[in-house]
Amino acid sequence: MLIDWFTVGAQVLNFLILVWLMKRFLYQPILHAIDEREKRIAAELGDADTKRAQAENERNEFQEKNAAFEKQRAELLNQATLDAKTEGQRLLDEARKAADSLSAKRQETLRNEAHHLNQTLRRRTQREVFAITRQALSDLATTSLEARLCEVFTRRLREMDAKTKEGLAEALKTAIEPSLVRSAFDLSAEQRASIQHALDETFSSDPAAQLRSGIHIRFETAPELISGIELITETGQKLAWSIADYLLSLEKSVAELLKDQDKPVAKVMPEPAANNQ
C-alpha cells in the first residue's frame, strides 16, 4: 500500500494547527476561567473564615457582656434589696423614736398639768387659809383688844433696838409733815395721848434725835389692819406691830416653802435603742 506523505503531512499540520487553535482559543480561556474561579472560591472561603471568626468573636463578646450584665443586674438587685431593707428599718426606727418621744412628751405634759394643778390648789388653799384667818381675827378683834395692842405698841417704842431707833430718829428729824399712826379701830384720846407720850419720851429726850419740841403725828383709821398699830414717817420708815405682820411673815414663809416644792425635777427620758434586725 502506497502512503501519500503529502496528505499525511497536511493532516499532521492540520492537527497541529487544530491543537494550537484549541489551546489558544478554547483550553486557555477555560483554564483561565478555572483559575479565576478557584481564586474567587478561595477568596470567598477566606472571607467566610474571616467572617466566621469575626462572628465567633462577636458571639463570645456578646456572651461575656451578657454575663457581665447579668452579674451587674444581680449585684444591683441585691444592693437595692439591701438599701430598701436598711431604709425600711431606718424609717421604722424613726417612727418608733417619734412615737416614744411623743409618748414621753405626753407623759411630761400630763405630769406638768398635774404639777400645775397641784401647785394651783396649794396656792389657792394657802390664800384661802390666810384669808379666813384674817377674817376670823378681824371678826374677833374688839376695842379691849385694841387697847391691849396700844400698850404693846408703846412698849415696843420704848424697847426698840438702837439701830431701829437711830433710823426712826433721823426720819423724824428731817420730816416736814407729821408722821402717821394707823390703827384698825379709832383710838381714844387716852390711847392717842399714851402713844404721843411714848414717842416724845423715846425720841425727844434723846440728844442724838435733836427733837426737843415733841413729835408731830396724826392718827388715821385703817380697817384693813388686823389687830395692830403702825407708825409711818414721811420718808417711809415704819414701826409696826400687828397680827397681820405675823400672818404676812408666815404667809411668805409658806409661799417660799411651796415655791421650793413646786420646782419640777427635769427627767431625761432614755433614748430607746434601735432594734436592727
Number of helices: 5
Low-confidence residue ranges? 207-212, 265-277
Radius of gyration: 65 Å
**Tally of DSSP β-strands:** 4
Helix content percent band: over 70%
Note the beta-strand portion: 5-15%
What structural class do you assign from the helix and strand content?
alpha+beta
Shape: rod-shaped
Helix and strand sequence? HHHEHEEEH
Rounded mean pLDDT score: 76
Order of strands in the sheet with most strands: 2-1-3-4
- In angstroms, what separates the terminal alpha carbons? 125 Å
Summarize the biggest pleated sheet.
4 strands, mixed
Concise summary:
By secondary structure, this protein is of the alpha+beta class. The protein is built from five helices and four strands, in the order αααβαβββα.
Can you characterise this structure?
The protein is α+β, with helices and mostly antiparallel strands. 73% of the residues lie in helices and 7% in strands. The chain has helices at 5-140, 143-159, 162-174, 189-204, 243-261, and strands spanning 179-183, 217-221, 228-232, 238-242. The chain has a four-stranded mixed beta sheet. The radius of gyration is 65 Å and the shape is rod-shaped. The chain starts with a helix and ends in a 16-residue tail after the last helix. The model is unreliable at 207-212 and 265-277 (pLDDT under 50).
